[in-house]
Amino acid sequence: MKATWNNQTLAESNDTIVIENNHYFPASSIKNDFFQASNKHTVCPWKGEASYYTLVVDGQKNEDAAWYYPNPKDAASEIKDYVAFWKGVKIV
Questions:
Q1: CA-CA distance, 33 to 37, in Å (whole number)?
Q2: 3 exposed, middle or buried (CB, 10 Å; 0-12, 13-18, 19+)?
Q3: Could you give the CA distance from residue 18 to residue 6 in angstroms, rounded to a whole number?
Q4: β partners of residue 11
Q5: What is the DSSP secondary structure assignment for residue 63, as one 8-state letter?
Q6: Does the model's pTM come out above 0.90?
Q7: For residue 66, which of 1, 19, 7, 4 has the smallest C-alpha distance?
Q8: Exposed/middle/buried for residue 6 (C-beta within 10 Å: 0-12, 13-18, 19+)
Q9: DSSP for 20-38?
Q10: Which of 52, 17, 2, 11 minimizes the C-alpha distance to 32?
């Protein structure tokens, strides 16, 4: 699987995990140059607290377009160290 935005590959892996129709990519598969830590956090009742990244590609920003669970609840422990995308990021 490949995650792309603004004509750049953000992550690529054959080992994604699909939960709720979202592909979670191993953190080791993301291209860190395009990721900026965000202050945004949300809470999922069964996965726990999510943290976000803003994507920066060729001077354009996609605010909070990637998320991850640094300390997921037990029910979602398989996605620890995995990153998912939304806000126009294409997964193919």
A1: 11
A2: buried
A3: 23
A4: 3, 30
A5: E
A6: yes
A7: 4
A8: middle
A9: TTEEEEEGGGB-GGGEEEE
A10: 11
